[in-house]
Write a structure and sequence with these properties.
Structural class: mainly alpha
Radius of gyration: 17 Å
Order of helices and strands: HHHHHEEH
Distance between the termini: 29 Å
Strand order of the largest sheet: 1-2
Strand content: under 5%
Shape: globular
Amino acid sequence: MRFCFWLVFFAGAMTSMRCTVKLPKVNLYDSLSVRHFIHRSSLCESIGFVEKNKDAFCAEQGYSSQILASIVAGRNEQVFIPHYNNSNRVSSKQQEVYLQAQMDTLKKMLRYK
């Protein structure tokens, strides 16, 4: 009976990983800083960084697009932040909502909590 409990417990734990994010300091205007972040951060940390700095990514500050590209690299996915919808400018808050929805989708695909 105990064996079955532990088997179910570990199987459940392995199907979805908890993501702990340590937010490093990244200067989005410094290509070397962004490059080090991309190479040293896990996918989970990168997604967390994007979620915490949605305003900078929606405004396409510095080399932020490189971080977004690294998150979806090797997958048949892309991150799209609309700027116009039917010739109307999309508000920055709405852009942040779109970006968060895409990050949530990626986390579901990768089974992150």
